[in-house]
């Protein structure tokens, strides 16, 4: 199967709305799955976006079309997801609860689905104070578990109001959980709640506490043995970025010894790389972990190096 | 009855505001959240904590405040509550009915108005039962 072939175009022209998610199909195999946080787009042209997609295509099964991450306005989640779909990179449409009420959330999902987007990931979203417009009104009309349930309702062919429609899209619904944020003991239970609401795969927040990740994954895996988990590994250039994350990104705590280890190294950039590599290898060794979600702040080829180092070969080299 | 409504609302708010910082959402779930009001969460989350809880258990939005859901998780065990209340902690709570804001949740409980969910919100009971069985 030619994985680069844009499926949306084909399906739209055939008038088929009910084809499944390729990401779901990938999870149904025994192969590892790798996803990537698609960079936020502030402006420019679709052609710039295409060249980024072309770089990622040989390596990744899907890319997150983010929804104004860290409460900074960017090109919209739906527009990016549609573009990714057209360029042949399977999108995961993220929808956060911060900016949209239940009506707008449903419109986002159904609008994207119309263009063939199948993977929908619902999350709470960073608060407006995390962004560059902290004076904005926060919405949070629904929370992430409710949004998941609403997406599951759309998958069954009805809006939250009960209004029915035909040719319901075969959505593949995902969620996010933070394995390392308090209350630690409750995080795995919260996964169960989201599963009962309709979530079928999870991407996990960046985590610098290997022990917490291990406990969390083991608890989730014993409750939901087939639920695919994708921990996030972040690639950064050095200690400064780690410090920034530790101080400014709520929910991400980086132990001082990890930052010191990178900072004191004779080659901090290499130390940061090796940290990410060790995290990826550790995560992949855990039962229930089906792959890795990457966030790349380096943009210098480190990501491809990491993929090769953890044993991934690009698709053009023969791997399907 | 309609004439009594404002009096009941006034009474409820008078009691619940000082104790729980009640926001009068009109669909009270305090019993299932360790007597901690989820509407005091700056994101008004009804189904558990967001991923932004700080290492010290404090809120992403208000760093000086303990996370409402961290508090709820502790209180549901530490307070002398009926087990049946604790069992509802991980329930999937439906979206808030914004039309009930400002009305008395006591009245809404009696009239079962607080249990009315949008027609599309159908919770499959077997899944919920399985989930409870696991807890």
Number of strands of chain B: 0
Widest sheet: strand ordering of chain A: 1-2-3-4-5-6-7-8
CATH class of chain A: Alpha Beta
- Quote the CATH topology of chain A: TIM Barrel
Mean pLDDT of chain A: 93
Question: pLDDT under 50 segments of chain A (min length 5)?
Answer: 1-16
CATH architectural label of chain A:
Alpha-Beta Barrel
How many helices of chain B? 5
Structural class estimated from helices and strands of chain A: alpha/beta
Estimated radius of gyration of chain A: 19 Å
H/E topology pattern of chain A: HHEHEHEHEHEHEHEHHHEH
Tell me the structural class of chain B: mainly alpha
Q: Report helical residue fraction of chain A.
A: 40-55%
Low-confidence stretches of chain B: none
Q: Largest interface, by Cβ-Cβ below 8 angstroms: which chains and how many residues each? A: A-B, 45 and 40 residues
Question: If you had to describe this structure to a student in words, what would you say it looks like?
Answer:
The complex is a heterodimer of chains A (320) and B (135). By secondary structure, chain A is an alpha/beta fold. Chain A is 40% helix and 13% strand. Chain A has a single domain (7-315), classed as TIM Barrel, CATH 3.20.20.220. In chain A, α8 links the parallel β6 and β7 (229-235). In chain A, α4 runs parallel beside α5 (102-114), α7 packs across α8 (210-223) and α9 (239-248) runs antiparallel to α10 (256-264). Chain A is globular, with a radius of gyration of 19 Å. By secondary structure, chain B is an all-alpha fold. Chain B has one domain (5-88, 97-134). Helices cover 35% and strands 0% of the residues of chain B. Chain B has 5 helices and no strands. Chain B has helices spanning 5-20, 68-78, 83-86, 105-110, 125-134. The mean pLDDT of chain B is 89. The chains are: A alpha/beta (320), B mainly alpha (135). Chain A binds chain B through residues 97-98, 102, 123-124, 126-127, 129-130, 138, 140-146, 149-150, 153, 158-163, 176-178, 181-183, 185-186, 189-190, 192-193, 196-197, 205, 223, 250-251, 253, and chain B through 42-55, 57, 60-61, 67, 69-70, 73-74, 90, 92-96, 98, 118-123, 127-128, 131, 134-135.
